[in-house]
Design a protein that fits this description.
Elements: H1 13-53, H2 61-69, H3 75-110, H4 122-136, H5 149-173, H6 179-203, H7 206-217, H8 225-244, H9 246-252, H10 256-261, H11 266-288, H12 294-306, H13 310-334, H14 343-361
Length: 368
């Protein structure tokens, strides 16, 4: 028996068999994860199709099929689908993907389950920028770089979102980029900008106050092809950058010391990823307003169903985030038709209870 356990290259047969079994198990698990991602993608396409057909005016499925095949369809239905609902559905999907990706990466970089696009002050900075544009009708330091209202709001939100994160980064660098300092600085800067928003609310007139409150609730009223022309390529580029570092993020969640011993350039990856997710989140928020809980909840749901390997976790979080936000927006449109509820209210209604459920019921491994 001993002779059978040794082969001609001095490698134990039991070891080779064990390696093959491990490889087989690894391939099997990878295949299951890929199938899960494909199923989520199919579910997202079905949900998007349903969202396009439903609304104050229902578009029959036959009409939708006729548009896709070029068989001819009612002109009014064509206009509703192409100019109103399709841009809005795509905007919901892109926003969900962006917020979920930003939350997933921030939780990995900061090794904190509460990190999301708003932890580092992105939302508070963007809200202050939007409030300044709505109430004062101007950009930073009085520069009128853009002239139309929605673009002024978007520009200011983006500018101040990036400014908030830049200040947080600067404070953290003074303390050797400590994660704890980064989080605490984010909370402090967020509170500072929130105080600025409160002050602008106090001094605004009734019309400006109404516009400001609606923007802060979040929604897709300003969706259109002109916005998607900016968001689609930017989001695609940012996701490619983040996917490039998926292996390094797998090492980083085990701790900086472990990652450094594996040859991971921790500081370089941290800064590149943080700048990328800041750009991703602040650009999205600039056009949609404040939409909470997607970046916080989607990564946790994804970890529960696909694990912590960032090669699969990141695309899974993106699909879950898109599904959550698209479903929320459809509910917001249909629940009290023709009155539309801000989607930020819907995401808060399902996001807060779900997060409390995770806090109370789930084990610690879901947070890491």
């Amino acid at each position: 028996m001993m002779e059978k356990s040794i082969h001609h290259n001095d490698i134990p047969l039991e070891s080779m068999s064990s390696d093959r079994q491990m490889e087989s198990i690894y391939r099997g698990r990878s295949l299951r994860k890929l199938l899960l991602l494909i199923l989520l993608l199919i579910l997202l396409i079905i949900t998007a199709g349903a969202a396009i057909t439903k609304g104050s005016a229902t578009v029959p499925l036959q009409e939708l099929w006729a548009m896709m095949t070029g068989a001819g369809a009612d002109e009014m239905n064509v206009y509703i689908v192409r100019e109103v609902r399709l841009p809005r559905v795509l905007m919901s999907v892109v926003t969900g993907i962006s917020l979920a990706a930003a939350g997933t990466i921030m939780q990995a970089l900061l090794r904190n389950p509460l990190a999301d696009p708003f932890t580092l002050g992105v939302s508070s900075g963007a809200a202050f920028g939007a409030a300044l544009a709505i109430v004062a009708g101007t950009s930073v330091f009085g520069m009128n770089l853009v002239h139309s209202g929605p673009w002024l709001i978007a520009f200011n939100a983006f500018l101040f979102g990036c400014l908030a994160v830049g200040v947080v980064y600067g404070i953290a660098r003074m303390k050797n980029s400590s994660t704890t300092v980064l989080l605490l600085a984010g909370v402090a800067i967020g509170q500072l900008f929130s105080a600025g928003v409160s002050a602008l609310k106090y001094f605004s007139n009734n019309d400006a106050l109404k516009d400001l409150i609606i923007w802060l609730m979040g929604g897709f009223w300003g969706s259109g092809w002109h916005v998607l022309e900016i968001l689609l390529p930017l989001s695609a580029f940012a996701l490619l950058v983040l996917m490039k570092y998926a292996w390094d993020l797998n090492a980083l969640i085990s701790g900086e010391e472990v990652a450094l011993t594996l040859g991971v350039k921790v500081k370089h990856i941290r800064w590149v990823c943080l700048v990328t997710v800041t750009l991703l989140a602040s650009t999205t928020i600039a056009f949609t307003g404040i939409i909470g809980f997607i970046g916080l909840v989607a990564p946790h749901i994804s970890r529960m169903i696909i694990g912590t390997d960032y090669r699969y976790l990141l695309p899974c979080s993106c699909l879950i985030g898109a599904l959550l936000l698209l479903t929320s927006d459809t509910v917001a449109r249909l629940l009290l038709t023709p009155i539309e509820i801000p989607v930020g209210i819907v995401t808060s209604f399902f996001g807060a209870p779900f997060f409390i459920y995770l806090l109370v019921k789930k084990r610690r491994e879901y947070w890491t």
